[in-house]
Design a protein that fits this description.
By secondary structure, the protein is mainly alpha-helical. The protein has one domain.
Length: 85
């Protein structure tokens, strides 16, 4: 297995501990962490995770993603910290 695949699996595992219907600021921080770590390629992961929420809105998910600067200072460490809580 490649290191990239292993890392992506760790991200998916961390997401499994975070409910997608979490508070809006937590949801945003998850998106920002993913975008910082994997760039635009992470949108699919964020969207699939978000779809499990009863409040899912494709337009809101897409618009929020577009509003995030990948260098906003929220890193993948944030995602892992949220998952640990």
């Amino acid at each position: 297995m490649s290191t990239v695949f292993d890392h992506h699996q760790r991200i998916l595992e961390a997401l499994s501990y975070i409910p997608p219907d979490c508070e809006r600021d937590v949801w945003f921080r998850v998106a920002a962490a993913l975008k910082n770590e994997e760039g635009e390629a992470a949108f699919e992961t964020f969207d699939m995770w978000s779809k499990a929420s009863p409040n899912y809105s494709a337009a809101d998910t897409r618009d929020t993603w577009r509003s995030i600067r990948p260098d906003a200072g929220i890193t993948i460490a944030t995602l892992f910290a949220i998952a640990k809580r």
